[in-house]
Amino acid sequence: xxxxxxxxxxxxxxxxxxxxxxxxxxxxxxxxxxxxxxxxxxxxxxxxxxxxxxxxxxxxxxxxxxxxxxxxxxxxxxxxxxxxxxxxxxxxxxxxxxxxxxxxxxxxxxxxxxxxxxxxxxxxxxxxxxxxxxxxxxxxxxxxxxxxxxxxxxxxxxxxxxxxxxxxxxxxxxxxxxxxxxxxxxxxxxxxxxxxxxxxxxxxxxxxxxxxxxxxxxxxxxxxxxxxxxxxxxxxxxxxxxxxxxxxxxxxxxxxxxxxxxxxxxxxxxxxxxxxxxxxxxxxxxxxxxxxxxxxxxxxxxxxxxxxxxxxxxxxxxxxxxxxxxxxxxxxxxxxxxxxxxxxxxxxxxxxxxxxxxxxxxxxxxxxxxxxxxxxxxxxxxxxxxxxxxxxxxxxxxxxxxxxxxxxxxxxxxxxxxxx
Length: 420
Ligand SMILES: [Zn+2]
Fold this sequence. Notes:
By secondary structure, this protein is of the alpha/beta class. It has helices at 3-31, 48-63, 108-118, 148-154, 172-178, 209-213, 251-268, 303-324, 343-354, 371-375, 402-419, and strands at residues 67-70, 76-79, 89-95, 129-135, 196-204, 217-223, 225-234, 272-274, 278-281, 291-300, 327-336, 339-340, 363-366, 381-386.
């Protein structure tokens, strides 16, 4: 076959993807309207917006011919088989929740792509059920702990989470009850490893490498090892005018030293470290800060890199606190080991991409966490990244074009077919 014939064939195979890409893209736009704050996108776990997103997603799943249900953790499922099917299942998933003031596509595009693949004519006669899951919590915005939805499905729910509270003091178990879920039954959402043949996820790239290379799709090699902490520094709030420097115990200055150290240690150890949130009390212009609380988010290729800098950071915080007469505590909020995509699924994904794109797909490391990390506890995982111009995400400007989303859908469909 000549090159132009091959390209022509690729174009033909891409076509249903293009149609489906446009529909999935339009659905992302529809879901953007389900938000707690009009004019931006704020959709958090177990809220009325989450319920509305589940309902709409389930409706689209049904229209695509899928069986649908809501599980005991608030995740919405759509499958070519019934919930109690005894056939093995191939899972495709991503999340429907967002960060505050989010974009339209992070997570959402993967769920909509999954519906197109599971509901497509290509999904008939597979030796397994193809099941799409819209996870209710990946970002961890409401309760501070990420991946609650996918961890329920993976059977790695931790009962210590029930006491976590949102910013209004509503505990996770109460939020479950208010959503109509029974906390006692969360274990029923989990799947046994033996019934699952694999997990695939399509996601926008949350960085610029595909865009810079002018390539629509890439293969994910691994997902970052991550840990998140909350650090609280207690000093002494006193009059800013009357307290000499040598008598001050300024919590914010202690925190400032620690924040700069996060950047320094991260660069030294090739870790990605960020302080994204800080609160200072009492927060008055004429009072020395008596309390500072801040977050630390660390991501790395491998677990040991991340753990090394945590030890270094802990020592630094202790030294700063001693020197400044402060009290410091460090609380871990989240920990996830590095997850490596399975060779067999990377192969399937690569074959799927080769079917719709001329360029050889690059292998990309994902510094951002994904539901695939949690599902890795029960089955092998594979991921496709879609080009995101400028690489921006967790921001209203995040984007994937309908064409690239269509390419992602077609590649995922071919990947699933090659596994079948
Ligand atoms: Zn995401």
